[in-house]
Amino acid sequence: MSLAVFISRWPELLASVLWILPLGYGVYLFDNEVRTRDHLLARSVLPAAPAQQALPAIEFNPEAIATVLGLAEHAANVRSAEPLTLRASFVSSAGISRALLAGADGERLYQVGESLPGGSVLRRVEVSRVVLWRKGREEVLTLQPAIELRVLTLNPTTPRPAPPLLHLRPSADLPPSP
Protein backbone atom coordinates (compact mmCIF):
# COMPACT_ATOMS: atom_id res chain seq x y z
CA MET A 1 0.00 0.00 0.00
CA SER A 2 1.47 3.24 -1.10
CA LEU A 3 1.48 6.43 0.84
CA ALA A 4 -0.93 8.14 -1.58
CA VAL A 5 -3.50 5.35 -1.12
CA PHE A 6 -3.07 5.45 2.65
CA ILE A 7 -3.63 9.20 2.74
CA SER A 8 -6.69 8.94 0.52
CA ARG A 9 -8.20 6.27 2.75
CA TRP A 10 -7.25 7.99 6.02
CA PRO A 11 -10.84 9.06 6.98
CA GLU A 12 -12.18 5.52 6.41
CA LEU A 13 -9.40 3.93 8.47
CA LEU A 14 -9.87 6.46 11.27
CA ALA A 15 -13.63 5.80 11.34
CA SER A 16 -13.10 2.04 11.56
CA VAL A 17 -10.55 2.45 14.39
CA LEU A 18 -12.91 4.74 16.27
CA TRP A 19 -15.58 1.98 16.06
CA ILE A 20 -13.33 -0.99 16.86
CA LEU A 21 -11.58 0.49 19.94
CA PRO A 22 -14.73 1.23 22.05
CA LEU A 23 -16.31 -2.09 21.05
CA GLY A 24 -13.17 -4.01 21.95
CA TYR A 25 -12.92 -2.19 25.30
CA GLY A 26 -16.58 -3.01 26.01
CA VAL A 27 -15.98 -6.73 25.31
CA TYR A 28 -12.96 -6.62 27.65
CA LEU A 29 -15.01 -5.02 30.47
CA PHE A 30 -17.85 -7.52 30.01
CA ASP A 31 -15.46 -10.48 30.20
CA ASN A 32 -13.79 -9.01 33.31
CA GLU A 33 -17.19 -8.53 35.01
CA VAL A 34 -18.26 -12.12 34.27
CA ARG A 35 -15.01 -13.52 35.70
CA THR A 36 -15.29 -11.36 38.85
CA ARG A 37 -18.88 -12.46 39.49
CA ASP A 38 -17.98 -16.12 39.02
CA HIS A 39 -15.10 -15.73 41.45
CA LEU A 40 -17.30 -14.03 44.07
CA LEU A 41 -20.03 -16.68 43.72
CA ALA A 42 -17.46 -19.46 44.19
CA ARG A 43 -16.19 -17.78 47.37
CA SER A 44 -19.65 -17.14 48.80
CA VAL A 45 -20.66 -20.80 48.77
CA LEU A 46 -20.02 -21.86 52.35
CA PRO A 47 -20.63 -25.18 53.99
CA ALA A 48 -23.96 -25.46 55.79
CA ALA A 49 -23.82 -24.36 59.41
CA PRO A 50 -24.54 -27.02 62.01
CA ALA A 51 -28.04 -26.84 63.49
CA GLN A 52 -28.09 -24.78 66.68
CA GLN A 53 -30.28 -25.37 69.64
CA ALA A 54 -33.14 -22.94 69.94
CA LEU A 55 -32.72 -20.47 72.80
CA PRO A 56 -35.56 -20.25 75.29
CA ALA A 57 -37.93 -17.38 74.55
CA ILE A 58 -37.55 -14.40 76.85
CA GLU A 59 -40.80 -13.35 78.45
CA PHE A 60 -41.89 -9.89 77.34
CA ASN A 61 -42.89 -7.72 80.29
CA PRO A 62 -44.30 -4.37 79.11
CA GLU A 63 -44.88 -3.18 82.68
CA ALA A 64 -41.17 -3.41 83.47
CA ILE A 65 -40.31 -1.41 80.36
CA ALA A 66 -42.94 1.22 81.19
CA THR A 67 -41.55 1.55 84.72
CA VAL A 68 -37.99 2.03 83.50
CA LEU A 69 -39.09 4.67 80.98
CA GLY A 70 -41.22 6.46 83.58
CA LEU A 71 -44.50 5.58 81.90
CA ALA A 72 -45.97 3.46 84.70
CA GLU A 73 -49.32 4.44 86.14
CA HIS A 74 -49.07 7.00 88.90
CA ALA A 75 -51.59 5.20 91.10
CA ALA A 76 -49.08 2.40 91.61
CA ASN A 77 -46.56 4.74 93.26
CA VAL A 78 -45.92 4.13 96.93
CA ARG A 79 -45.33 6.78 99.57
CA SER A 80 -41.61 7.04 100.17
CA ALA A 81 -39.96 5.72 103.30
CA GLU A 82 -37.21 8.33 102.98
CA PRO A 83 -36.87 10.50 106.10
CA LEU A 84 -37.25 13.61 103.94
CA THR A 85 -39.92 16.26 103.48
CA LEU A 86 -40.60 18.08 100.24
CA ARG A 87 -40.53 21.81 100.94
CA ALA A 88 -40.66 23.20 97.38
CA SER A 89 -40.36 22.06 93.79
CA PHE A 90 -38.91 24.07 90.94
CA VAL A 91 -40.12 22.64 87.64
CA SER A 92 -38.31 23.86 84.54
CA SER A 93 -39.41 23.24 80.98
CA ALA A 94 -35.99 24.21 79.66
CA GLY A 95 -33.34 22.79 81.95
CA ILE A 96 -33.03 20.71 85.08
CA SER A 97 -35.86 20.72 87.59
CA ARG A 98 -34.96 20.87 91.28
CA ALA A 99 -36.59 20.04 94.59
CA LEU A 100 -35.99 21.52 98.04
CA LEU A 101 -35.92 18.59 100.47
CA ALA A 102 -35.60 18.83 104.24
CA GLY A 103 -34.08 16.06 106.32
CA ALA A 104 -32.16 15.54 109.54
CA ASP A 105 -29.16 17.42 108.10
CA GLY A 106 -31.25 20.44 107.08
CA GLU A 107 -32.67 21.65 103.79
CA ARG A 108 -30.91 21.19 100.48
CA LEU A 109 -31.70 21.58 96.76
CA TYR A 110 -31.49 18.38 94.75
CA GLN A 111 -31.69 18.06 90.98
CA VAL A 112 -32.98 15.20 88.85
CA GLY A 113 -30.59 12.23 88.86
CA GLU A 114 -28.92 13.14 92.13
CA SER A 115 -28.59 10.63 94.99
CA LEU A 116 -30.38 11.35 98.25
CA PRO A 117 -29.01 10.63 101.75
CA GLY A 118 -31.19 7.51 102.20
CA GLY A 119 -29.79 5.85 99.08
CA SER A 120 -32.60 6.64 96.64
CA VAL A 121 -32.29 8.75 93.48
CA LEU A 122 -34.40 11.78 92.56
CA ARG A 123 -36.08 10.62 89.38
CA ARG A 124 -38.67 13.25 88.49
CA VAL A 125 -39.81 16.61 89.85
CA GLU A 126 -43.43 17.58 89.41
CA VAL A 127 -45.39 20.59 90.64
CA SER A 128 -46.79 19.01 93.81
CA ARG A 129 -44.58 15.95 94.27
CA VAL A 130 -41.27 14.31 93.49
CA VAL A 131 -40.71 10.75 92.35
CA LEU A 132 -37.80 8.80 93.83
CA TRP A 133 -36.25 5.55 92.62
CA ARG A 134 -35.56 3.33 95.59
CA LYS A 135 -34.80 -0.41 95.63
CA GLY A 136 -36.08 -0.98 92.10
CA ARG A 137 -39.39 0.85 92.40
CA GLU A 138 -40.81 4.35 92.28
CA GLU A 139 -41.76 6.10 95.50
CA VAL A 140 -43.44 9.48 95.92
CA LEU A 141 -42.84 12.43 98.24
CA THR A 142 -45.73 14.87 98.10
CA LEU A 143 -45.67 18.55 98.93
CA GLN A 144 -47.22 19.10 102.32
CA PRO A 145 -49.96 21.74 102.25
CA ALA A 146 -49.29 24.82 104.32
CA ILE A 147 -50.97 24.75 107.71
CA GLU A 148 -51.80 28.42 107.64
CA LEU A 149 -53.24 29.99 104.53
CA ARG A 150 -52.81 33.70 104.20
CA VAL A 151 -55.29 35.47 101.98
CA LEU A 152 -54.94 39.14 101.24
CA THR A 153 -58.26 40.89 100.82
CA LEU A 154 -58.73 44.40 99.53
CA ASN A 155 -60.85 46.85 101.44
CA PRO A 156 -63.58 48.13 99.08
CA THR A 157 -62.98 51.67 100.35
CA THR A 158 -59.38 51.57 99.21
CA PRO A 159 -59.01 53.72 96.09
CA ARG A 160 -58.27 51.79 92.95
CA PRO A 161 -54.93 52.40 91.30
CA ALA A 162 -54.88 54.52 88.17
CA PRO A 163 -55.18 52.55 84.92
CA PRO A 164 -51.88 51.88 83.23
CA LEU A 165 -50.86 54.35 80.59
CA LEU A 166 -51.18 53.02 77.10
CA HIS A 167 -48.82 55.51 75.51
CA LEU A 168 -45.80 57.35 76.73
CA ARG A 169 -46.57 60.97 77.47
CA PRO A 170 -44.51 63.78 78.93
CA SER A 171 -44.77 63.99 82.69
CA ALA A 172 -46.62 67.34 82.43
CA ASP A 173 -49.62 65.56 80.90
CA LEU A 174 -49.87 62.99 83.70
CA PRO A 175 -52.67 63.35 86.27
CA PRO A 176 -51.52 64.52 89.68
CA SER A 177 -50.54 61.72 92.01
CA PRO A 178 -52.44 61.43 95.35
TrEMBL record:
Superkingdom is: Bacteria
Locate the Type II secretion system protein GspC N-terminal domain: which residues? 83-143
This protein's UniProt keywords: Cell inner membrane, Cell membrane, Membrane, Protein transport, Transmembrane, Transmembrane helix, Transport
Q: Name one GO cellular component term.
A: plasma membrane
Question: Translocase among the record's keywords?
Answer: no
Instruction: One Pfam family, please name it.
Output: T2SSC
Q: Which GO terms describe its biological process?
A: protein transport
InterPro entries attached to this UniProt entry: T2SS_GspC_N
Q: Where in the cell does this protein reside? A: Cell inner membrane
Q: What is the protein's given name?
A: Protein XcpP
Which species expresses this protein natively?
Pseudomonas kielensis
Q: What is the lineage of its organism?
A: Bacteria, Pseudomonadati, Pseudomonadota, Gammaproteobacteria, Pseudomonadales
